[in-house]
Amino acid sequence: MIVSTDGGPPHQPPREGIEYEADLSLRRLRPRLNAEWERSQTPVESINHFELRLKQHWPKLFTLLFELYGQRYDFFYHLEQILLTAARGWADRPETLRELDTHRINEPQWFQSEKLVGGALYVDLFSENLGKLRAQIPYFQKLGLTYLHLMPLFAVRPGDSDGGYAISNYRSVDPRIGTIDDLRALADDLSEVGIVLVLDFVFNHTADDHHWAQRAQAGEREFQDYYYLFPDRTLPDQYEQTLREIFPTVRRGNFTWHDGMRQWVWTTFNSFQWDLNYGNPAVFRSMLDELLFIANMGVDILRLDAVAFIGKKMGTGCENLPEAHTLIRAFNAIIRIAAPGLLFKSEAIVHPDEVVRYVDTEECQVSYNPTLMALLWESLATRKVTLLTRSLSHRHQLPAGTTWTNYLRCHDDIGWTFDDNDAEAIGINAYNHRQFLNAFYTGQFPDSFARGVPFQHNPETGDMRISGTMASLAGLEQAIEADDDDLKELSIRRMLLLYAVTLSIGGIPLLYLGEEWGMLNDYDFVNDPAKAGDTRWIHRPKMQWEFLEELHDDGSIRTRIFTSAQRLIQLRKELPALAGLHMELVATENPHVLGYLRSHEGNRILVLANFSEEPQTVTGNGLRTAGLGRFFQDRISNVTLGTSTDVRLEPYGFVWLERV
Ligand code: GLC
Ligand code: GLC
């Protein structure tokens, strides 16, 4: 049987004793640590930096590890291995990164800047390989990006690899797109031009052909303990009572029978993605080693994939468990010691109350904002901002020293993860509303402009998520099919409206590349057997560079979207009021118009955004009382407005107002 975290509460030393135990353990480990410095020939100055941070973070790290693994008879051994792994990570860290570490320790707010604007892409789909991606850096600069998230690019299993999320080796790049050296060279080039590099840390599972999984298959007990294996259905059936199904159209349940081992394997996602057993401290240590290796490539932010799933406990949904938080905090504490310039970004696409629990300077400093994403699409469908406003009113603020990434589309589906109580508070029945949104975004609802497709429809629960590109969901595909200029105009305005919000509301805006010129759904994925079963491939097409060659040809839709996005990005970067997170909602007295005030270090911008295809007005009086004064300039159009009259917004119009 596996060692799991189900073994009841661990023995805790008395609270007042833990600092003493931490200190004592470190003193006992001292000779091993010194031997490690000796072995690695680390310069004294570097050792001192590490030791200073170790002193600061060790009591916390010790407490977290004790909480996780203190009940193990071999806890002290694992503690030692973890400490030595951290020291080795630091010894191997390139000098330039160590300098950056110092810089960022002294400037901890660096990622709150208005200058940070992100883009995400698949290397193979965007530019074929890493070498050619280096040649595209001018494109990112032209668009104004200063943050680049490369979708998983490590070696994967053959055939279906869940878009790179089934990793067989964290230390080598998928040979089809390049080598580790290409990745290092790219990281250097990006850093030279001031673009932050973001990669994934896929740590909930490995591919079934990772060498740990292979050794497990070969019958090695030590590696079987890296995963959750069960000889029969007894325990899986008990677990299933309370588990969700993440990919119900791929495989029912959460376990996969492995014929060779004659065991059931825990596989939350695809059958070839084996969940790692973090109840086993050897797994923690091994993944820490991989984490530090990736960090030392020159990564600035690591996206922690599928964070919600990394703990298991009988009788629970095995999502968002306290152990998941303890594990991430333990990884974070080590990063603060051994690679302190690095930040974590959580990918928790779960209930909004749970999303924020991962966000903390001691856990993940950055988080996806799935609630905002879903509610922006909700507002487009309903033409009303009531639910969005309700949610923002108590969900936007995050702890100091942390921030959101605000996105509209990504490589995954859209799930309607808003809070049912937020909906009910304003008279919306959450179940019916989700049915409506699914119907709307799959184009089933009368007069819908959207062309999305269902993802993981579960006929038993009625659950469904939505796939589709931003442009297709916003109506461009339908408008082009109908060859209707008015509809085209409306769809473009919808996209720009969404950008105007994510670029200004507070947090790091993140574009999914292709969006910037209105990429449409690609229905060809069904011809590839490795993709046909997963509709997310509809919004993961190959980049069509030939389209961008026409970008000078004014008047085309692509040019219009690209240049408008580019201008908004540029403008954001010129407005210090848009740094940080501080946002106050402004009562617009109009259910179609979202209003908020951004302020940062005395700079202020008031944003108004009309989510309907009719013109709307906001009373000048309301704006005056929002505290900005009598005259404003819209920084987007440069028009000056007075508040003695009402402010009129065009269909899907928006303004970024500054007091003059
Ligand atoms: C994350 C990824 C998704 C993947 C899953 C399993 O949610 O974003 O694409 O399928 O994790 O790794
Ligand atoms: C993760 C996300 C979920 C997403 C899935 C991949 O489970 O939490 O929202 O749908 O990955 O699609």
Structure overview:
With 660 residues, the chain is an alpha/beta fold. A hairpin with a 5-residue loop joins strand 22 and strand 23. Helix 1 crosses helix 3 (75-92) and helix 20 (476-482) runs antiparallel to helix 21. The termini are far apart.
Instruction: Give start-end ranges of low-pLDDT stretches.
Output: 1-9
- Number of helical stretches of at least 4 residues: 24
Mean pLDDT over all positions: 95
The class by helix and strand makeup works out as alpha/beta
Strand fraction equals 15-25%
Cα(first) to Cα(last) distance is 70 Å
Main sheet: strand order: 1-2-5-11-12-13-14-17
Question: Could you give the count of β-strands?
Answer: 25
The Rg value, from CA coordinates, equals 25 Å
What would a concise description of this structure say?
With 660 residues, the protein is an alpha/beta fold. The chain contains 24 helices and 25 strands.
